[in-house]
Amino acid sequence: MSFYSYKNANPCSCPGIISGSALDGLQEKVCVQVKRVYDSCLQQEQLDNKEVVITSYAMVAGNNCGCSCNCGGVNDTETVAPTSAPVPPITFESCRSTTTEGTIRNLTVERLCDRPCFARVRCKVDVPIDILFVDSRCVEYIGKGVITIDRDVLLSVPDESIVPYCLESMVSAICVAGTYEGNNTFNLTVCVTVILKVLATVEILVPSYGFCSIPPCEEFAENVCDEFFSLPLFPPASLCNNDEVSISNAACNTGSCGCGCRR
Fold first, then answer.
1. Residues 23 and 46 in one domain
2. Is 116 a residue whose pLDDT tops 60?
3. Sign of torsion, CA 213 214 217 222?
4. pTM for this one?
5. Which of 90-99, 164-173, 210-219, 223-232 has the lowest mean pLDDT?
6. Which residue did the predictor score with more confidence, 215 or 192?
7. In a domain, 110, yes or no
8. Where are the alpha helices (DSSP H) in 12-64?
9. Domain identity same for 169 and 213
């Protein structure tokens, strides 16, 4: 079963919302190795007329113009090696990023004298994308391409140390429109999200509640009665059982509270 299943018999040793004092159950101080985020920033923008060249392509298995069954998106489409090249005219269908990890290149970090701890960070972030398109024979293809984003931002950068910091990017992109221009080039309108992070692998001392108690897996089954069986055996106490019910309640003035009990 899951950590968060109502069937879990030991929720105190599992992640979740803390009820009561957060100090209850603390057992020790633990040294953990983590990636610490010293600073990060997010930028979202719409890129118009972005030209992307596909470097390779594959055919979509068992699909054509008469059967658009790709419910899971571009990334979930099964592909096979192409048996022939796409035949023009080519029609753009959709595109989106293939991973959340962008590739940072041409990175420069310039510390600012007038703003201690801050630096001007300039780089190019490559966002890999899959482009879904169809040719004149109603054969669907997926092409691999890259969208390059220029970034020039201010970030808080830690001082020099034996363990160096690094920059990573988290990316997402989805196309809202596109056309094929020829020579394996698409003109796209893309919504892009880029998060830049200043990271370092560090060892941090944290309070611990002990090890997680891993619950056994719960096999999927159509147990339609489980939700009903999880209800309390007896009706819980309601306002109708308390003296706090306002006498101005019109329903109670008639002798019934409207919830199955009487006063």
1. no
2. yes
3. positive
4. 0.73
5. 223-232
6. 192
7. yes
8. none
9. no
